[in-house]
Write the structure tokens for this entry.
Amino acid sequence: MARPLPIVVLISGTGSNLQSLINARDGGRLPVEIRRVVSNRPEAAGLKRAERAGIEPVALDHRMFDTREAFDSALAGAIDAAAPRLVVLAGFMRILTDGFVTRYTGRMINLHPSLLPAYRGLDTYERCLRDGVTEHGTSVHFVTPELDGGPVIAQAPVAVRAGDTAESLRARVQAREHRLLPEVVRWFADGRVALEDGRVLFNGRPLERPILLTEDNRLILPDETRTLETGP
């Protein structure tokens, strides 16, 4: 049996997506070893989740550093001490410097609450509701120096309902995030997904468009003729 993929997870808040990884790991659906959880906010509730799950929590307060470069250098040290093969940004609310991102090219992914390239940055729920769009969702992408601009691996669309608030829409999107993120990490652990020359490869072939996770939990490849098996 292959050894579990060593990963480090970066968070800033409650860590609900971290919990989805822990649950998938504990349920035997995700062959990973979560070696550390690092937060830029010492008060982040997700650090307690990590501790309860037997994972080393590391608080690295960005407010204690004079520059982004200084914080990113300390963050890289905290990550590298755990020797991960993948870094997962799961609600990590910091803009990272180009040098830091380049250090982890091809082995750092981010979860973003929109159907990229739409609504990069913050306040995605409020912005999409103001615009009156009928569909929102979440994306998992490789991290590049361009903010929320890296190649997208997979997305989960969510219909916007009449009367939705930012809170109600966020709740439904987060439910899809909890399903999508462990799937993408599993693909990475299984060697099925990679970044090569700025493009996402899935099973060794370039993805022309992101894989879609439908609301009935089917994973659809871009050619629309094949579906993938999802975890339980």
Summary: The mean pLDDT is 95. Residues 68 and 171 are 31 Å apart (CA to CA). The domain at 1-104 is CATH 3.40.50.170 (Rossmann fold).
